[in-house]
């Protein structure tokens, strides 16, 4: 067939809820993203309650609607008190009881605000940092628990910078964000007053000044993704030396951390702690108290009165992301249930929506992707024999998790009361922080999942060396158990390849097959890899989101995900070829198998964003915009051959400029 006259055809089944369509006025050879998705993009309006909309979002809508039905059934059922079904229903009912929420006003915050008001010195402030962190109201310091990258058989606490109300430290220093800073200060004043916490413009400015000072010590996004620089194992004595004005025993006692759980911690940004320590005595205690009251009120805003909710959304939704309308209340209620009782709700989802046959087909796909990587590593020209042997060893230790956990989380100790929304939020937070801190120093649980089954996403965990694919992403356009192999391999196959590729990207490659952070590459191989990664950084630095063409992608921030996309697409194609070794595919719908593969890839990235959101994501998101992710295909000779791309075409990339890492 003539690649210049590709027919308009939708490969995605209608029951996927997506009507992605080709734009025949744009040639595949000039802009593959616009060619495959252009008509959908032109004819689809972003829903008023969303900042962006596309393939992922349509599946999230489907998952959200499915969860609503299941949760509302649980809320309407006469379930036995204390059961997980009853807790799911009671939590949802507590959020939907708007009469009670309006009647209470900000009264549910009164005890916490009084405790902050009673502070008279820095140790008292540190105690409130710890007490509120236990309730998921984090001040400048945040904590999470994960496998120790230096000893991946045990869990350890990680301590990192936090405490900003704007998306990123750059928002506090770059001139382009000055209008947002001004709106943020006005927002602080208005929200505090709506919550009954009398504040003037001076108070709001003072709170912003605290954040500005905190931000000055924050590492930027590129530095904070460096696996080596951010692994700083420290003793309790080290913590005291880094931040002498932080009374760590007081903080940990208020956090209710088990004895000994912070004898060793990983400090991700040590200089931030030093800067924070100085800031604690450089600013008046009253200013810090105002800041902490702000952290409490802004954190609880989504669960308070409608006026407070609307003001919070006006800034975070409209100003930062350009979203016109707040999500319907039921959607926010579903979100709360999934946040607090995610796996309890997930059990309901799996029982209703995940057929065993899908898991069987995915297992086959994953096996072919791993085999494709194995074959690739055996002949990879830039990889020497020593690194190759260890790369193959790591690949052999990959653990795939598909659909849902083998062992579900136990929520029996969590109390949920249908008449106490804020209490439920507090208790759910305390349940989770205690669950996390209780893991410190203990062997890692390899059955644990970091996403719920109803989540439309996937991830690679470098310390666990595992790839995880929740049930909800295993639907068209990513995956269809009954679909053509070419489309499946271009969709979920390339996504699987992407996640495996993270094990060998610029940061994942720092971890060995056991998840230990160590340098297992030869110096020569690392240098060759870094040269290829630098070419990819430079390539993406020249690209822009389709929805905000006046800004450029940050190639250094997105390089890991770009390597994942490029590797996933490359190895996904190899895996598809493996799948066809015994039963070669034929032309279908006027497309060759290779063309169907790349169309499957492009449909995954079908989407659009509001301009404000596109710009916000450029500043903070390690993923490139959808059009750039799709058009990474221009690096593949297989793409050039499939569509007859030649010099002068928009998708053409000279051979010397193409990057092929895997």
TrEMBL record:
GO cellular component entries: plasma membrane
GO molecular function, one term: metalloendopeptidase activity
InterPro entries: MetalloPept_cat_dom_sf, Peptidase_M13, Peptidase_M13_C, Peptidase_M13_dom_2, Peptidase_M13_N
GO BP, sorted A to Z: protein processing
PROSITE patterns, alphabetized: NEPRILYSIN
Keyword Zinc: yes
Alphabetized UniProt keyword annotations: Hydrolase, Metal-binding, Metalloprotease, Protease, Zinc
Residue ranges of every copy of the Peptidase M13 N-terminal domain listed in the record: 29-405
Entry cofactors: Zn(2+)
Pfam family membership, one: Peptidase_M13_N
Highest taxon in the source lineage: Bacteria
Sequence ranges assigned to domain Peptidase M13 C-terminal in this UniProt record: 457-659
PANTHER family: FI17812P1-RELATED (PTHR11733:SF167), ZINC METALLOPROTEASE FAMILY M13 NEPRILYSIN-RELATED (PTHR11733)
Similarity annotation: Belongs to the peptidase M13 family.
Protein name: Putative endopeptidase
Naturally occurring in which organism (per UniProt): Branchiibius hedensis
